[in-house]
Each structure stands twice: as structure tokens, then as C-alpha cells.
Amino acid sequence: MSSINSLFRTFILVPRCTKFVPIQNRSITTSLRLCETLRKPHAPPPTRKLSPITWKTLAVSAAIGAGALGVVYYLQAEKDLKIARERKRAVGKAAIGGTFELVDPDGKIVKSQDFLGKWVMIYFGFTHCPDVCPDEIEKLVHVVDKLEKESKLFVQPIFISVDPKRDTPPVVGKYIKEFSDKIIGLTGSVDQVAQACKSYRVYFSAGPPNDEDDYIVDHTIIIYLVGPDGDFVDYYGQTHDVDKIVGSVLLNKLKYDQINQKQSWIPSIDLKGLTQAS
User: Looking at the record's lineage, which domain of life comes first (predicted)?
Assistant: First the structure.
């Protein structure tokens, strides 16, 4: 009985483990997980994605866009020129302007055809005019001088007398020398002057003479612009100053050059045909 009590005390004094740890099973489980990890294929390292937009692509896109825009502008310009040519053909020549045959200060015959290929400005007046004609001729001289100096455009100024009775060739020659050597003075017989005035729709009428047989000629006060093809282009009255006339002449020359320019080296495209084909 005493031996049983001693054994019981010994069992009570021995510390007991409150948690059972299966050491062997844990080792097996860890090994299995490691094998599964090693058997799995290794994922490739992440790669850096490159953006599809680069400076090179931007430059190429800009070049293509600029080229396309240039083609659009070219086609629009060609369309405008075609419309301008068709409008000019449909309207025809202006009722103002035409041929004339007059006499210069040296007594030589001068025809309107002699000025083909040149820009011309014509003023109709008379040498005994007290104030209006000198002012308009001086304005004409300033215009042609400014065009030649600033824009390298030579315009031939012409003075045509509407007083053939008094304005003989020598008188006209002496008169225009007082303004500029560039001006060509023209006069002629009554019929020749009347024909020139009729071509440009110029009104002129001599007033009654005074006691000294002097008289004033009432006439149209206009400067006419004629193109290189001999056709009337524009006209300028007393209200137009030098700068306005110069600007108008340059603008008319630009329009003339555009309408009469040579065929471009860029092939034309029939947009109507492309539209129907699509």
C-alpha cells in the first residue's frame, strides 16, 4: 500500500505538458510545401512596358499632318483660282477701256497695243487746267515712283489731252516735263481724242471762251489702271490718296498674277471624281 502511495506522489510531482506537438508530422508537412514550391514554374521577371508615343512618332505625325494641311491649302487655292477664271470668263471684259491711236510730243503715232505687257495708269486732262489736273498728275507721279521704289513694280504713266485744239504735241511735251520724265504725253486730232475718251467713258466739254479766248474744259477726273493684257482693271478718283492707290495696284497685280500663273508642278486632283468613285 505504501508503494502505491509513493508512485502516486511521484506522478503528481512530475510536470505535465499541456500541449501536444507532433514534431515529426510538422517536419513532413514543411517538406511537402517546400517540394511543391520548387516544382512550380518560376514566373518571368516583370518587364517595363514602353509607351507607344515617343518623340520620334510625334515628329512623324507632325510631318504627316503638315503635309496633309499643305495639300488641303493647295487644293483650296486651285479651286479659288479656277472659280476666279470662270467668273472672269463669264463676266467678260469691262465696258471701260479699249484701243486708241494718238500722237506723242515727237509727232510719232502711239497705239494702245504698244503698251501690252506693261502696267499702265492713264489720266485725261488738259494743259491749261488751273489746279485739278496738276494735283492729279503729281499724285500719279508719286504713285508710280512709290511702286517702283518700294515694290519694284514699274507702271507706265500716260497723260492724254482732252483739249486737242490748244494741246498740240509740242505743248503737251513741254507740259509733262514739268512733272516727270516718266510720263508719256499724248494728244491728237479731234477725232482721235474723241475715240480715246469714248473707249474709257471719259466725259469732256469745252466751256465758253472769255475775252482772251481762254476757256476751261470740264472733264472726268479719274486715273485708270490698265493691266498687261490691255484690259481695264480699276480706276481712282480725287478721294483716293497715294497710299490707297498703291495698295490697290499691288492687290490687283497679285490677283492678276494668280489668275494668269502657269500650271503648277503639283498634279491637280479631281475631287468630284474621287467622291463619285467612293
Answer: Eukaryota
